[in-house]
Write a structure and sequence with these properties.
Blueprint lengths: L5 E3 L7 E2 L1 H6 L2 E2 L7 E7 L2 E10 L4 E2 L5 H13 L22 H4 L1 H6 L1
């Protein structure tokens, strides 16, 4: 990366944007190197760092193809299937439980 200019929080010049700001504009960095960085100071810890890219060199976001939409839908559906009972839980199964709530807490289901 080399030596890049460092700006304080909210003091970066116009024409530079973070990844998130580029995305809001419908753009992506497009392979360009980091142009600068912004540092936000914090008490008793190292500062938060955000990398900045040149807006004029950014490229448009690639559109989602039907195959990408299908793969995303399949991945999201897999997150809802309980590995114990193989049913659709109706919500994303929490990774801390690893299964749907009725399978994780069967005694509470019978008591209710």
């Amino acid at each position: 990366m080399g030596a890049v200019p460092v700006y304080r929080w909210r003091l970066a010049p116009d024409g530079l944007a973070t990844r998130r700001q580029l995305r809001m504009l419908g753009l992506r960095p497009g392979g360009q190197d980091v142009a600068a960085q912004v540092e936000r100071p914090r008490r008793r810890r190292e500062p938060l760092v955000a990398y900045l890219y040149r807006v004029e060199q950014a490229k448009p976001v690639r559109p989602m193809t039907p195959a990408k939409w299908a793969a995303l839908a399949k991945a999201n559906a897999a997150r809802r299937i309980c590995p114990e009972c193989r049913r659709d839980a109706g919500y994303v199964i929490p990774p801390t439980l690893g299964m749907c709530t009725p399978c994780a807490f069967p005694e509470e289901q019978r008591a209710a």
